[in-house]
Queue: 2 jobs
Job 1
Amino acid sequence: MTPGIPGFTPRFPGVTLERLQAWLPTIITAVLAVVAALVLLAVMSRLLHRLAPRVHWYVVGFPLMRIRMRLSWRHLCLNADLTGTDRPTTGQLGPLVVKGRPIMPVLPLLTRIRPRTFGATAVILLHPGQIPEPFVNAAEAMSHAWRVHAVRVDPRQRGRVRLTILTADPLTTNHRDDPADWATGPTPASAAGTPHSGREAAIEEAASTAPTVVTGAGTTAVPGDLAANVGHREDGRPWVIDLVTFPHWLITGATQSGKSTLINAAVARWATRPIALVGIDCKGGMELAPHAPRLSALATDRAEAADVLAQLVTETQQRMRLCRQHGARNIWQLPPALRPVPVIVVVDELAELYLVASRADKDEALRATTNLLRLAQLGAALGVHLVVAGQRVGSDLGPGVTALRAQLAGRICLRVNDEETVDMTLGDLYPDAVEAAQQIDPAAKGIAVTTASEAGWIRARSVYLPPETLDTVINATAHLAPRLSGLTPPNP
Ligand SMILES: Nc1ncnc2c1ncn2[C@@H]1O[C@H](COP(=O)(O)OP(=O)(O)OP(=O)(O)O)[C@@H](O)[C@H]1O
Ligand SMILES: [Mg+2]
């Protein structure tokens, strides 16, 4: 028997000092090998992250986040009050009925965690009796627990909530599109005769086309023409302003937040289609001046705006009679030969229409804003659409502004300075989007919270179109500007 150390009783009788001394080199080599392997893995992971971030996400990042999600799920549910129970929440204590939180909570099931290029998606299955609201409120807690940029909670499906997990803010990179994308491209929806299928892919494709060699005057518009691809959403999909899904849009944003840049991108798309564009720019026509050659009418002060809007109301009433004669409920049900051209009215700086300084101003403002409201109420089915932009939209502009807002179902909120404007833009339809809009970074221009048909709301960033690219598109499409009865195109 091998002698041990005097006074020392070994815990493992087989392990003696001599044996330990004999194993030491092997143990040291094994430890060094493990450390070296870990260092190598870390270096390779960093290298992969730098060279191929997407591959790194699928191979390393996502599996690690999935483990983190699984490990933290119980704590998260307990702390953020997301648990349910399969026991009664009331009981009898003597003559009293007591109510409380069960001490044996049941966790909702976190399932279908799938990697995506922008992060991941997952589904939470709710227990009977659970409502989605606490999950929407816990989005911030989830993003902290899983160490990701943001978690969006979509509660619209019954019995479940869908999670969109974003690992980084995809909107912080500047999207300056290749000018070629705006100068040439495949045939737009009208030329291809794409019917309105309602399928998003078709809309996205139609929305992205912007050839300078366009369909030529006289081509009949199809609903796909009303979709304009204006940028990128945070889920990696194109940001499409679609006037068929949402006929009228409200865009708010502080000065220099990117309203005109966004309007430029949309107008550059619509300019190539058989669509009439009308500008209302009461800042003296400065903002919409670059679009003038392609506009069918441009109002540069409130008196002109009132006249243009009154004429458009008359146009709408004529369209209404036409639809009635042919038993059509909207212009798209009319035979193509009879179908009037869609009209998009772009209003830059809404407040200029509402604010009054004198009695004379008051009558003029009332005429302009009443006609604007009538267009919003009547125009949707008759192919007259509004895109209304303003720095501040608040109740101080008058009661008419709330009535107008109710008609503008599409909302875009860029960075704004006051809480009331955020509330007016998003609060009535998407209360949970208000906070996201308040957090828009002033340094990153063109970022907005926008209505998204299938997701409720989403963050997005418009493309920046250099002035020369916009000029190219506008000049190449100027001959397409349709004549509208009673309206004169702006002087070149
Ligand atoms: N999506 C974007 N990407 C990069 N830069 C942008 C973007 N949007 C706006 N910008 C920058 O911000 C500047 C101001 O934008 P823009 O003129 O559109 O603001 P605005 O909201 O119309 O301001 P105002 O209310 O004063 O008219 C632009 O000149 C451009 O440099
Ligand atoms: Mg502007």
Job 2
Amino acid sequence: MKWNRGLVVILYATFAAATSVAGGRQISGKRSNPSAACFEAQQQLGEAVVDTLPLNQTVVELNWSQTCVQEPYCIISPTDAQHVSEAIKIIKSHNVKFATRSGGHSPNPGWSSIGKEGILIDMSKFNQVSLSGDGQVASIGPGLRWGQVTSVLEQQGAAVVGGRLPDVGVGGLILGGGYHHVSGQYGLAADNVHNFEIVLSDGSIKNANAQENEDLFWALKGGGPNFGIVTRYDLKTIPVGAIWCQLNIYAPGQALEVLDAFTEWQTNGASDLKSTIGLIMGLDTVTVGLLYFEPADQPEAFRPFYDLEPLQVAIPPTNATLSFLNEVLGGAFPFTPLRHDYRGISSRIDGNTTKEVYQHWVERALAVRESTGASQIFGIQHVPSELAKQGVAKGGNPLGIPEEDQLWWTTLVDWEDATQDDVVRSVSIETENYWLQLGEERGLRIPFLYMNDASRDQNPIATYGAENVNRLKQIAKKYDPTEFFQKLQYGGFLLSKA
Ligand SMILES: Cc1cc2nc3c(=O)[nH]c(=O)nc-3n(C[C@H](O)[C@H](O)[C@H](O)COP(=O)(O)OP(=O)(O)OC[C@H]3O[C@@H](n4cnc5c(N)ncnc54)[C@H](O)[C@@H]3O)c2cc1C
């Protein structure tokens, strides 16, 4: 037993005095007291749920990016919504900072991790998947990763709109929207939520869906971690059968030709919503995944690519499954204990601009690799107007994505040394600025910024449009009147900063 009950009173008083943290945005004048909160949580929820010092390092280190790994005062790993409710009440009563972590895939420091000043709520034990009797709704825990969800559902002949990579977590992805291969056909993952089970700041456990707490339902479809801790997502299933796919690897010297083919697909082929392309432009290779969501033979939509000779056909044309795609993509992004960042921007489609920005990026990324060893990728996600229309048709969301064809640029950056954070991150920051400059000059600018690609200094919620932001703030005020999630949540894309 980690707490000797005979010494508890003395330790409690000593720790409480030694570790009280004053100041910060707190919800009452009471001093923050993580040790008292951790003690009370362990007494109430048990040692299996609340881990105190010395912490289990495997759980501490679950964040994908080293930019996020921190030692909290204690870790609460609830197994059901009632535990989350108790945890919230205790955290609130001791005025302690906290962070919630599901898959831990955000690379933004402090979004899903916290240091000694607070408590980590680790949702990894919410790892159940179940399918309704009629197969129409899949209930999934936020602590799952998309690879697990995809494979369990596939064994039961079902699929959902979710994440494209197996290690990425369920919890954060849906609250940011959730862009999937099939989002052109079905909208974002959040648009396909039937019901959110959520614990509010007063500890109450609620459902948010089209009939119950409808305003909260709307807000959760992209509004981030501002309203409560989600303990279950009920997702509408979608029909997915065999998927035609081919994976080609090109040389960096072919990058501009690949971008020409990609733009041609965006302007012509992509109107066939069954077609989608994963484009990952690295510094040594350019990878193109052609995906067609139906069994097929050389779909016409990808015509611009058929004349482009790849260095290597990594996966010859084949009819595959979502799990297979997950595995292939997972292999391309292995879990490595490095520092990571991502960044995003949206733009109207213009091939010349994409190529100019790519050239700007590659020159800088190569130079920074030379001095730091940092590896970076340049990715373009095609967003057909139908994606936004699906969101509206399925009840609406707060994102304010314009109903026009567009692209969401993203970059993933990996490096080792914390002293090089600024120089490494400068490449993506400069690239974003260049997109913005060209976008303004050429009338290509789309203000919307996708939360799941946004870096720590970006402000996605502020781009949702004034009306949506005001509505989100009203809804937050209604469901979290004490501003618990704004004041005690350690990081995240918070409405109070939008
Ligand atoms: C390699 C890679 C691939 C990716 N692929 C995709 C993709 O295909 N599509 C896409 O849309 N995005 C993608 N993303 C982005 C990803 O969706 C976000 O990083 C997302 O935040 C990850 O969710 P998580 O649960 O792992 O995050 P976490 O780091 O655990 O959490 C992220 C944020 O959500 C909050 N949060 C987490 N769980 C809960 C909860 N249950 N209740 C309330 N708040 C919660 C956290 O507090 C934090 O603010 C990818 C990211 C990476 C690094």
